[in-house]
Specification:
Length: 439
């Protein structure tokens, strides 16, 4: 048939329909970029980043005044250290195809992320959001070793831990590794972050040994307003931590937001009730600790359980952590700021209750099967992170001394580590309060 103008004119509607159908098919295959989801995820990543300075205030207020800067610096330096390592290889290890335990290196240096979309958001945004998780995971560990670990040793251990323990574990749960394939539920990092950091902190405290005077003098936080400020920032930032893990502005994010608030409020009240029931007074430090414990406990479950179930998670998490703090001597480790009792124990409770209560939103496998999977994930994380951290600390100890000298520890390590101090004498000659030696 000759393609005369008349034939072409009559065929135009058909050609338009065919070309339109092809375009629609191509569009259906392409990732659907969504500006609303992207805007929310950028905000969520910023909120999670803000959590680490909040943790610095929380930890800093709990320590002696002579070591407040060093304590806060270990959180702040985690931001710089982990963000660089995450770009160089941590992200690739966690989130590119590899084997069941370890990702590949195809995205090292964020190679190939430009102009790609993860779900409905740019891959750069996803990588940045996950970077903030990696940052605070390392910062959490510092609370167990404050006032006695050399700053350089913490940096070396932290870099190795982030690349060789955190990133592989993230791959195993979220990046296509065996725990995720098996069906382990961890919405926002109860296993990957809190159990991992908690048990690693406990091991680090054990390897370093107790502080001088541990067990003989009472621990008195030097700045309780710092503790409250840090806890408030953590609660604020945790909304991005949990609701952001929906990776979009959607119903799952809304559920995570609600359950996070309910569980945290319940945990704070529960902690205060336990303090009062033991014959004491409800304290500001107790309120701050309780709300942080509630945030930890609900993290793995926030997008999988109903609001009423989150109430159970908050109460159970706070109860377990409260009594773990009371009997922390049983751990035989000077975990200075109770990282394992508050993050490790609450993370374990939250991970197990995720399996027990996921049915409240119709998610997960049958109850018995899901509980078995959650238990397997918890036990593996405890062994993997505990043994791995022990080996890394011993290796670091071969290169650098892990502890400061006894005189530096007694006098406080701000001056010796940073040539600065948190509180100086003012013009009136009044000094900042000095805390009694801590346990």
């Amino acid at each position: 048939m000759l393609l005369t103008p008349t034939v072409l004119r009559r065929s135009l509607p058909l050609l338009t329909l065919l070309s339109g159908g092809a375009a629609l098919a191509q569009a259906a295959k392409a990732p659907a970029f969504d500006t609303g989801d992207t805007a929310w995820m950028i905000v969520a990543a910023a909120l999670v980043l803000f959590m680490t300075p909040g943790l610095a205030f929380f930890y800093g207020g709990l320590t002696r005044s002579q070591s407040v800067l060093n304590t806060m610096m270990m959180s702040f330096v985690s931001i710089g250290l982990v963000l660089v390592l995450w770009m160089l290889g941590g992200y690739s290890i966690a989130f590119t195809p590899g084997n069941s335990f370890f990702g590949g290196f195809s995205a090292a240096g964020f190679n190939g992320l430009s102009n790609t979309v993860n779900g409905t958001i740019p891959s750069y945004v996803f990588a940045a959001f996950q970077a903030m998780f990696a940052v605070i995971a390392l910062a959490l560990i510092s609370g167990a070793v404050v006032e006695r670990m050399r700053f350089g040793a913490f940096l070396l251990f932290g870099g190795l831990w982030s690349l060789l323990i955190y990133s592989p574990l993230a791959h195993m749960v979220w990046g296509g590794g065996w725990l995720g394939v098996r069906g382990a539920l961890d919405y926002a990092g109860g296993t990957v972050i809190h159990i991992a950091a908690g048990v690693s902190a406990l091991v680090a405290a054990f390897v370093l040994g107790p502080r001088i005077g541990h067990g003989r003098t009472a621990h008195v936080p030097h700045n309780v307003p710092f503790v409250l400020l840090g806890a408030a920032i953590l609660w604020f930032g945790w909304i991005g931590f949990n609701a952001g893990s929906a990776l979009g502005a959607n119903q799952s994010a809304a559920l995570a937001f609600m359950t996070t608030c309910v569980a945290t409020a319940a945990a704070m009240l529960t902690w205060l009730i336990w303090e009062s029931a033991r014959g004491g007074k409800p304290t500001a430090v107790g309120a701050a600790t309780g709300l942080v414990v509630g945030l930890v406990a609900i993290t793995p479950a926030c997008g999988f359980v109903s609001p009423w179930a989150s109430l159970v998670v908050g109460i159970a998490g706070a109860t377990a952590s409260f009594w773990a703090v009371q009997f922390k001597q049983a751990f035989r480790s000077d975990d200075a700021l109770d990282v394992f009792a508050c993050h490790g124990i609450a993370g374990i409770v939250g991970a197990l209750l995720t399996g027990a209560l996921a049915w409240t939103t119709g998610q997960g496998k049958p109850l018995g099967e899901q509980m078995l999977i959650q238990t397997q994930a918890v036990l593996f994380t405890l062994v993997f992170c505990g043994v791995g951290s022990f080996i890394l600390l011993k290796l670091v100890g071969l290169v650098l001394p892990l502890r400061v000298t006894a005189s530096q520890e007694v006098s406080g390590i701000d001056i010796s580590s940073h040539s600065e101090q948190g509180y100086a004498e003012n013009e009136s000659g009044l000094s900042a309060p000095v805390m009694i030696g801590g346990d």
